[in-house]
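Q: What residues go here?
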């Protein structure tokens, strides 16, 4: 670990979360401090993306990976950071819609260069309407 003992890291986790979740207790000693610091920064800390939006992204992402642990975690975290049920529903619906377009474009083997060119034209047009 990065200079801290397992008990020191677990004490900080307990102080932050109220308990040491079982999944943290199973992380090897030499990785715990590192994994906790990343978790604390990305999941709990203020980053460039506001926490509510990060959690809505997490819900959308894991609605596709079908990880029930991650979907539950990000749904509850989103609510803690102020997301409404309607925002959560919209995030999931957005994922469904985006994944559908991905399946369609890949399935018909849309020419990527043509797609990129047309997207540039659409972007320029919309920006000109500004």
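A:
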């Amino acid at each position: 670990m990065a200079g801290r003992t397992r008990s020191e890291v677990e004490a900080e986790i307990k102080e932050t979360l109220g308990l040491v979740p079982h999944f943290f207790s199973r992380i090897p000693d030499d990785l715990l401090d590192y994994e906790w610091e990343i978790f604390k920064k990305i999941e709990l800390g203020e980053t460039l993306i506001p926490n509510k939006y990060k959690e809505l992204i997490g819900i959308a992402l894991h609605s596709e990976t079908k990880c029930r642990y991650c979907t539950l975690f990000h749904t509850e975290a989103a609510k803690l950071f102020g997301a409404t049920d309607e925002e959560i529903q919209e995030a999931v619906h957005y994922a469904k819609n985006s994944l559908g377009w991905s399946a369609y474009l890949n399935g018909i083997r849309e020419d990527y260069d043509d797609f990129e060119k047309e997207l540039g034209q659409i972007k320029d047009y919309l920006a000109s309407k500004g």
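A: Context that may help when evaluating the design: The mean pLDDT is 95. The radius of gyration is 20 Å.
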